[in-house]
Design brief:
eight-stranded mixed beta sheet, alpha/beta, 27% helix
Length: 232
């Protein structure tokens, strides 16, 4: 029964657009070009290899006056081709760099979507931020929407000096989306309700019109959270 339920939860979690809404090709000079995005948009495209052996597409939207970088894990039934306008708006209004990526099996990324692969995916993207752009952990804000809350909390629970974490329509866990259970089962996926306890950075939770805001201090990497509730 456990394996069946876990399989159902996994199928419920992943709905990559079919066909993908964009493609990526490599120029003779080694640069990757993202379809439909002109050079004046100030966006870099990357193809990153993950620990799972997949090659995932990531995009870095540069803001020349940015202090912080948003590492954005998008929701279901979407890929990077559908997110371009949102990223441009966020970059303009928030004045942040934006790094986003397609999970394995989404968009032009290879492989199949799975809980473990999304963890490998976000780790590869974070490593790219450090190596390619020299961005410090203290200047990274993790943003996870819907299924993206899974890889976001996976990384947030391992990094103790993040500037902040934003959870947008986050899920408590895969099984809790399907059934009103009060305990965590071994076969559950995205056990966010358990991992949130290991997050030390400030957290903003957004769910429809419900907001829960962490207590923000000068030292955001170590400030306590107050009245933090996870909705799913």
């Amino acid at each position: 029964m456990g394996n069946v339920t876990s399989t159902v939860a996994s199928k419920f979690a992943f709905f990559p657009p079919d066909p993908p809404t964009y493609d990526v090709h490599r120029e003779e000079d080694g640069r990757y070009v993202f379809s439909g995005v002109s050079a004046d948009k100030n966006m870099d495209a990357h193809v990153l290899e993950t620990k799972g052996g997949n090659k995932i597409v990531a995009t870095f939207w540069r803001q020349p006056y940015a202090r912080f970088t948003l590492l954005y894990s998008h929701g279901n039934a979407a890929d990077l081709g559908q997110m371009q306008e949102l990223f441009v708006e966020l970059r303009t209004h928030l004045r942040v760099n934006i790094m986003s990526y397609d999970y394995s099996g989404y968009g032009a990324s290879t492989g199949k979507p799975s809980e473990l692969n999304t963890y490998y995916d976000i780790e590869a993207v974070y490593n790219c931020l450090k190596k390619e752009y020299g961005i410090r952990q203290e200047d990274v804000i993790l943003y996870g929407q819907s299924v993206g809350s899974g890889p976001t909390l996976h990384l947030a629970s391992r990094l103790q000096r993040l500037r902040a974490v934003v959870l947008h329509s986050a899920i408590l866990s895969g099984i809790r989306v399907l059934y009103p259970v009060k305990m965590t089962f071994w076969f559950d996926i995205y056990k966010n309700i358990d991992k949130i306890r290991n997050v030390s950075s400030p957290v903003l939770v957004i769910h429809m019109m419900i907001l829960s805001i962490s207590l923000m201090g000068n030292d955001c990497g170590n400030c306590p959270r107050k009245n933090m509730t996870l909705y799913g």
